[in-house]
Design brief:
The complex is a heterodimer. Chain A is built from two helices and eight strands. By secondary structure, chain A is of the alpha+beta class. Chain A folds into two domains: 1-31; 33-170. In chain A, strands 1-2-3-4-5-6-7-8 form an eight-stranded antiparallel barrel. In chain A, a hairpin with a 3-residue loop joins strand 7 (154-160) and strand 8 (164-170). Chain A starts with a helix and ends with a strand. The relative contact order of chain A is 0.15. By secondary structure, chain B is α+β, with helices and mostly antiparallel strands. Chain B has two domains: 2-103, Arc Repressor Mutant, subunit A; 151-248. Chain B contains six helices and twelve strands. Chain B has a five-stranded antiparallel β-sheet with strand order 4-3-2-1-7, with no helix packed on it. A five-stranded mixed β-sheet of chain B has the order 8-9-10-11-12, with helices on one face. A two-stranded antiparallel ribbon of chain B has the order 5-6. The longest helix of chain B has 19 residues, at 115-133. The chains are: A alpha+beta, B alpha+beta. Chains A and B meet through helix 1, strand 1, helix 2, strand 6 and strand 7 of A and helix 4, strand 10, strand 11 and strand 12 of B. Strand 1 of chain A pairs parallel with strand 12 of chain B.
Chain lengths: 173, 252
């Protein structure tokens, strides 16, 4: 009789446990959020001109739950816009240690500046970010946190498939 | 409890102390030092462990010397083959760290008592997890494409300050450019009287069109960083040269 009661208790307990586990997994899965801002100085080496063509780049990467946004804003040295790349992405995979992220780009908008020269880096990035496709033909962008210190608000990131290392500021969100 | 760890093409059976290359089927019964070091790295996967800690005897035997630990690491990396030696990372001045995904560490064997209950529980949990993650399971997923630093060199300034240069490449071929650049950087920094930079990260895009240099250090107690990206699409590329270092004020 006692065993009978135990058996009756086991099934609801299992269901409750599974429910708690699913809630916990859902919570940890959606809790990933990160925002990075990476400032770069760009130099376009040109065999014809002796002086490099120079621009600046601000790359903002924002990951929140299952969604991500990657914005590249290019500027001329006088501060005027030299074009931008705005990408929407979904988070495909995050490693257990939160150091490897795999984003699938769902939407990409490349805007070139009509006036003046387009930075070579913008053309390159617009090309390379469409290279690595997943099975749904969505381009993938991987990044790995090589080094970071939350107390000092910095992270060094390695982006793939371009194999680009970039130092970024960790933005508190 | 039997622990099996997948290390690239190799499988480490912690219980038997065997490292098996699953491609060549070569079995290496690890000597004491290698077995101890690898077991400790697996136990603290993802955590940096000092040479001293790695050398401390697990059983009643003698502790390993630092050079024995270094040799053991070298032997393990050699067996893992060059394409997977990055799994054991050298963290300069701190020790070593193993990088293995948790799903590559398999623990086999459960307490046989109440096995029916455990099996029911495991099945219910598996079904719940499978149902939850069904949409996100990538059945075609390849091995983790982690790329680790391919090389680390040091540049010494006139005043003796040492700057670490980390070079990243995602290929084992056509890396001459990055070698040339590292030599130029070492030479360039030699002429710096002082610098805020402590670490430099250098990477070349896979097609050798863009060079990325990240300089990191501290200035007045705050993080200080610069990213320099040089695009050179010409056939005869010259990414860095002494006057460019002066133009960009690489020391500052």
């Amino acid at each position: 009789m006692r065993n009978q009661y135990l058996k009756l208790l086991i099934i609801p307990m299992l269901v409750l446990l599974c429910g708690l586990l699913v809630t916990y997994l859902f919570w940890i899965r959606t809790d990933h959020s990160m925002m990075l801002s990476c400032h770069s100085e760009l130099f376009d080496r040109n065999a014809i001109q002796a002086i490099d063509s120079r621009h600046t780049l601000v790359a903002d990467i924002s990951v929140k739950g299952s969604k991500a946004q990657v914005n590249y804003r290019y500027f001329n040295l006088d501060g005027s816009s030299a074009g931008n790349i705005i990408m929407q992405a979904k988070v495909d995979d995050i490693s257990d240690d939160n150091r490897h992220f795999r984003l699938l780009i769902t939407d990409k908008d490349v805007r070139l500046n009509d006036e003046g020269s387009t930075p070579a880096h913008l053309k390159y990035l617009a090309y390379v970010n469409g290279l690595s496709m997943n099975e749904d033909n969505l381009p993938a962008l991987n990044f790995e946190v090589l080094d970071y210190d939350k107390s000092k608000d910095y992270a060094v990131i390695l982006f793939q498939p371009s194999n680009t290392v970039c130092g970024c500021q960790l933005i508190k969100v | 409890m039997i622990i099996i760890v997948i290390l690239g093409n190799c499988k480490f059976d912690a219980d038997k102390g065997e490292l098996i290359n699953e491609t060549t089927h070569e079995v290496w019964i690890l000597p004491r030092a290698e077995r101890q070091v690898l077991s400790k790295l697996v136990d603290k996967n993802g955590v940096v462990i000092s040479k001293l800690e790695l050398g401390k005897a697990i059983d009643n035997g003698n502790d390993l010397t630092d050079s024995s630990v270094v040799r053991a690491i070298f032997m393990i990396r050699t067996f893992l083959e060059p394409q997977h030696e990055y799994l054991i990372e050298t963290v300069k001045g701190k020790g070593y760290r193993l990088y293995v995904r948790k799903n590559n560490i398999k623990k086999i064997g459960i307490n046989q008592e109440n096995s029916r209950l455990l099996i029911t529980l495991a099945a219910a949990l598996s079904l719940s997890i499978l149902a939850f993650f069904w949409d996100s399971i990538d059945f075609n997923q390849q091995n983790n494409p982690i790329v680790k630093q391919s090389k680390q060199v040091e540049a010494t300034l006139i005043d003796g300050t040492v700057v670490t240069i980390n070079l990243f490449a995602n290929s084992k071929i056509n890396n001459q450019q990055i070698d040339i650049i590292s030599k130029s950087l070492v030479d360039g920094f030699f002429h710096c009287k002082s610098t805020y930079w402590s670490d430099i990260y250098v990477s070349m895009t896979y097609d050798q069109q863009v060079l990325n240099i990240t300089l990191r250090g501290e200035k007045n107690g705050l993080s200080y960083m610069r990213n320099l990206k040089v695009s050179d699409l010409s056939m005869y590329k010259k990414f860095v040269y002494p006057t460019w270092f002066e133009e960009v004020d690489i020391c500052a």
